[in-house]
Amino acid sequence: MIVRRLRVRDFRTYESADVALGAGLTVVHGRNGAGKTNLLEALYFGCTGRSCRTRDERQVVRFGQGAA
After folding, report:
1. Least enclosed by CB within 10 Å: which of 8, 26, 46, 56?
2. CA distances from 55 to 11, 18, 34, 61 (A)
3. Which tens digits make up the pLDDT trace of 23-36?
4. What confidence tens digit (pLDDT) does each residue in 10-27 have?
5. Residue 42 DSSP class
6. Predicted TM-score (pTM) of this structure
7. pLDDT exceeding 90 applies to what percent of the chain?
């Protein structure tokens, strides 16, 4: 599987995000608490249908939102 684009809405700390992934290696970097792990979790969730960090899917929905 090749993922070319990741679009996220109301997932963890992201209200929305749209990330185009280029060919080859993609590096995600940023300060602590910037949302790097949340972005990777969103990718995992999109590929597998489950979270890699929790069994409670309600925890992946951004606070105050009904669904992601």
Report:
1. 56
2. 15, 25, 23, 13
3. 889 999 999 999 99
4. 889 899 999 999 888 999
5. H
6. 0.80
7. 54
d(CA 53, CA 8): 17
Q: How far apart are CA 26 and CA 19, in angstroms?
A: 11
Residue 34 C-alpha from the chain's centroid: 12
Distance separating alpha carbons of residues 51 and 54, to the nearest angstrom: 6
Q: CA-to-CA distance for 55 and 48, rounded, in angstroms?
A: 13
Q: Which residue has the tokens 């979790």?
A: 41
Question: Where in the chain does DSSP place strands (E)?
Answer: 5-11, 14-20
What are the residue ranges spanned by the domains of the chain? 5-60
Tell me which residue of 12, 13, 21 sits closest to 57, measured CA to CA: 12
